[in-house]
């Protein structure tokens, strides 16, 4: 008797969940995907992200009708500049610039999500409330009173994952650790010489670090206007602070004006070059949500085995200090699709074996990535230790003077 492929339930329609859905669709494996948000644009999904070492794999594992990924999602379009991240530390400009040897695509997240959602039927407003596993299947119940059953359930539901709570048998607040930074976040739109100055600091994003090594600012270009003359930027200022989990911490209640004032005051510790972006941010561009970086080292023995597994931030939430969280989520999705493709649902044994093998490898890789991300900003960094960005070591790079007219 020929084994039928399992029916897969995916909780979460973020990047990892959608890529898993596309990879299953290419393999003609049945799936359903559920998202707790009311619709695709219900909330801010994040900003641009760097994709490296995985672009060819992504294109190879999605159905042929999807267009080429690079022109569809590149955050620099229509500018012809290569992706670039620069780190300014100790008076040096250390950078990774896209090239044949260091290929990277920095993707606008909304464009990438739209690309990955091509021909994927997503069920919205589906908040998981309970999970039941049986010998021959798994059922998930939703807040709206509905339920659905399948052979495998995948938690792709992000850093506040309900599926993680089920697999670890503990609430997320006991798993997640807040990195010791108060984070101030702003967004602004630049054109003309102001836009050119930011592109000169780095085409895609940069990190400016204070002389004392205690304070830093990350600045990122999210996307460019269709005519190539306007850039949409975001930035976050990271201030050492071990008390941000306190309910009365200022990050929980500060107004936009207060956040901008604090950013300008803290910014005095940085070179003026790196704080121009703060001064160019209007009060209404300040984010008021209590933004923080959280991560977790979840060991493989902590996760129960069975028909339920997870990927991405649900499995290995990490801070963005090496720019690798998105790549690991997508690597998870592709590896899980391959594991599911090896399964039959005629009794469950191969499902349990293949899910266990995927989960063991994925969790080990995830813990290593979380540790490396933390290590990027640790206090005892050696002077000669390379800064890693997008999977590559940075190297000294000459300063630039970008003119928009040269790259349109």
Descriptive notes:
This protein is an alpha/beta fold and 408 residues long. It folds into 2 domains: 8-47 and 108-176 and 295-377, 3-Layer(bba) Sandwich (FAD/NAD(P)-binding domain), CATH 3.50.50.60; 180-292 and 385-406, D-Amino Acid Oxidase, Chain A, domain 2 (2-Layer Sandwich), CATH 3.30.9. It is 27% helix and 24% strand. The protein has 10 helices and 21 strands. A hairpin with a 2-residue loop joins strand 19 (388-389) and strand 20 (392-393). The longest helix is centred in the last third of the chain and has 27 residues, at 349-375. The protein starts with 7 loop residues before the first strand and ends in a 12-residue tail after the last strand. The model has no long low-confidence stretch (mean pLDDT 93).
Class of the largest domain, according to the CATH hierarchy?
Alpha Beta
Number of domains: 2
Low-confidence stretches: none
Give me the CATH architecture of the largest domain, please. 3-Layer(bba) Sandwich
| Helix vs. strand class | alpha/beta
Give the % helix: 25-40%
Relative strand content: 15-25%
InterPro entries: FAD-bd, FAD/NAD-bd_sf
Organism: Pestalotiopsis fici (strain W106-1 / CGMCC3.15140)
Cofactor: FAD
Keywords: FAD, Flavoprotein, Monooxygenase, Oxidoreductase
């Amino acid at each position: 008797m020929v084994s039928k492929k399992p029916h897969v339930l995916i909780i979460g329609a973020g990047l990892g969940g959608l890529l898993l859905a596309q990879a299953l669709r290419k393999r003609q494996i049945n799936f359903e995907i559920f998202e707790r948000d009311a619709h695709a644009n219900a909330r801010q999904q994040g900003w641009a992200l760097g994709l490296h070492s995985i672009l060819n794999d992504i294109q190879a594992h999605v159905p042929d009708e999807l267009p080429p990924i690079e022109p569809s999602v590149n955050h620099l379009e229509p500018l012809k500049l290569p992706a670039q991240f620069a780190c300014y530390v100790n008076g040096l400009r250390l950078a990774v610039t896209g090239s044949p040897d260091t290929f990277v695509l920095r993707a606008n997240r909304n464009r990438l999500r739209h690309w990955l959602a091509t021909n994927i039927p997503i069920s919205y407003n589906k908040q998981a409330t309970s999970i039941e596993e049986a010998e021959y299947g798994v059922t998930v119940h939703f807040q709206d009173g509905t339920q659905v059953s399948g052979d495998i359930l995948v938690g792709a539901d992000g850093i506040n994952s309900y599926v993680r709570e089920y697999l670890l048998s503990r609430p997320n607040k006991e798993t997640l650790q807040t990195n010791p930074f108060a984070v101030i976040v702003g967004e602004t739109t630049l054109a003309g010489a102001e836009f050119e100055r930011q592109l000169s600091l780095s085409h895609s994003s940069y990190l400016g670090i204070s002389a004392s090594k205690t304070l830093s600012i990350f600045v990122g270009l999210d996307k460019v206007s269709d005519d190539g003359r306007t850039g949409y930027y975001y930035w976050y200022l990271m201030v050492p602070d071990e008390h941000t989990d306190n309910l009365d911490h200022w990050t929980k209640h500060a107004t936009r004006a207060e956040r901008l004032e604090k950013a300008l005051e803290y910014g005095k510790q940085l070179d003026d070059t790196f704080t121009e972006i703060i001064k160019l941010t209007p009060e209404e561009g300040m984010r008021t949500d209590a933004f923080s970086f959280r991560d977790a080292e979840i060991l493989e023995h902590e996760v129960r085995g069975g028909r339920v597994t997870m990927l991405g931030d649900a499995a290995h939430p990490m801070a963005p200090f090496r720019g690798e969280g998105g790549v690991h989520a997508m690597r998870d999705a592709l590896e899980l699709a391959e594991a599911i493709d090896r399964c039959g649902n005629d009794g469950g044994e191969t499902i349990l074996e293949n899910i266990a093998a995927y989960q063991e490898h994925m969790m080990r890789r995830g813990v290593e990535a979380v540790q490396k991300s933390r290590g990027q900003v640790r206090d005892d960094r050696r002077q000669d230790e390379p800064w890693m960005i997008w999977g590559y070591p940075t190297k000294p790079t000459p300063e630039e003077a970008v003119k928009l007219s040269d790259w349109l």
